[in-house]
């Protein structure tokens, strides 16, 4: 592991940004201050942070309905994200996209997507463009175990492997397709086994260990950048909340929760950093800085205006 203190603390900050953002919007949603639907990334922070720590601004990602963590890890601003969730005109999509459609082309965020599995052909297309233009950029797409049953998964892997496109498929396997356990919708234990059908590498790793995520992703991204084609990565993880805010979670047990909460990725990384020689004061200072940034983001969102009625169809139809 050749990670210096600066890189490690950058990943620590990213994980805490995601954790605090998600915790706060859950509270805001329950207070009826945020409209729409919210799908939280709590518990899966190590995947977004570890993967995106290997990416450049010119690399591109495609996300999911549970996409806030990906956007933050790729450099998304908390104030613009918060404003978007509030439906305000100052948001990333001018308040029209909401939680599931945040995008920023300048940062390489091609967009979160409310349609399961929709990001895979988008990222594959982006990777085709990168190869056509002869850049050494990489596309990364995040998706869940349920999405790996979609036709878009197989079509994208087939095309990407055939043309050796620079795309990395990142499966965030939290064991649940909405409310359905993986064992009930797949006759395999590891989603990465499906890579064999396309002649590409497939790797399963611990999605709650950011150091392991970083290393596995680094190898796949480097491979893609050097022109050797796609990799299918599977990170085993667990969402700490239900499928959506308000989900009663009748399909999970207390024993299961206790087991996975003991593997929370943030305390695990904190222990590593302390052993590495980082002081508790340094870590707490970063956590406090994130909290201040988040408070400013909420204030910005609440004080921003809603879109004017005249903006209803702006950006929807070509002029």
UniProtKB/TrEMBL annotation:
Protein's UniProt keywords contain Transmembrane: no
Please list the residue ranges annotated as the Dehydrogenase E1 component domain. Answer: 14-309
Q: Which Gene3D superfamilies is this protein grouped with?
A: 3.40.50.970
Any Pfam family from its record, for instance, is: E1_dh
Q: Which domain of life is it from?
A: Bacteria
**This protein's UniProt keywords:** Oxidoreductase, Thiamine pyrophosphate
Note the InterPro entries from the entry: DH_E1, PDH_E1_Alpha_Subunit, THDP-binding
Q: Which cofactor does it need?
A: thiamine diphosphate
The GO annotation for biological process reads: pyruvate decarboxylation to acetyl-CoA
A Gene Ontology molecular function term of the record? pyruvate dehydrogenase (acetyl-transferring) activity
Q: Which PANTHER family match?
A: PYRUVATE DEHYDROGENASE E1 COMPONENT SUBUNIT ALPHA, PYRUVATE DEHYDROGENASE E1 COMPONENT, ALPHA SUBUNIT BACTERIAL AND ORGANELLAR
The protein depicted here goes by the name: Acetoin:2,6-dichlorophenolindophenol oxidoreductase subunit alpha
């Amino acid at each position: 592991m050749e990670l210096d203190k600066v890189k490690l603390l950058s990943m620590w900050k990213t994980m805490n940004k995601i954790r605090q953002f998600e915790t706060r919007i859950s509270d805001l949603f329950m207070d009826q201050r945020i409209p729409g639907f919210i799908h939280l990334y709590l518990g899966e922070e190590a995947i977004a942070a570890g993967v995106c720590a290997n990416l450049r601004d010119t690399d591109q990602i495609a996300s999911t309905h549970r996409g806030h963590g990906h956007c933050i890890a790729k450099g998304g601003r908390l104030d613009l994200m918060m404003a978007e969730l509030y439906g305000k005109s100052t948001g990333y999509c001018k308040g029209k996209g909401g939680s599931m459609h945040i995008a920023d082309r300048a940062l390489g965020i091609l967009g979160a997507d409310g349609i399961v599995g929709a990001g895979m052909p988008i990222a594959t297309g982006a990777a085709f463009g990168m190869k056509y233009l002869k850049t050494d950029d990489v596309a990364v797409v995040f998706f869940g175990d349920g999405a790996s049953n979609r036709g878009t998964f197989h079509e994208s892997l087939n095309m990407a492997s055939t043309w050796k496109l620079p795309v990395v498929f990142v499966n965030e396997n939290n064991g649940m397709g909405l409310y359905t356990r993986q064992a009930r919708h797949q006759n395999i234990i590891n989603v990465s086994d499906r890579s064999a059908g396309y002649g590409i590498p497939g790797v399963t790793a611990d999605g709650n260990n950011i150091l392991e995520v970083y290393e596995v992703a680094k190898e796949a991204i480097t491979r893609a950048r050097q022109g050797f084609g796609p990799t299918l990565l599977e990170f085993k993880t667990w969402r700490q909340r239900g499928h959506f805010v308000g989900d009663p979670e009748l399909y999970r047990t207390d024993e299961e929760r206790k087991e996975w909460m003991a593997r929370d990725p943030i305390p695990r990384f904190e222990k590593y950093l302390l052993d590495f020689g980082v002081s508790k004061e340094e870590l707490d200072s970063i956590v406090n800085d994130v909290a201040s940034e988040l408070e400013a983001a909420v204030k910005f969102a609440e004080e921003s205006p809603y879109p004017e009625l005249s903006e209803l169809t702006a950006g929807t139809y070509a002029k």
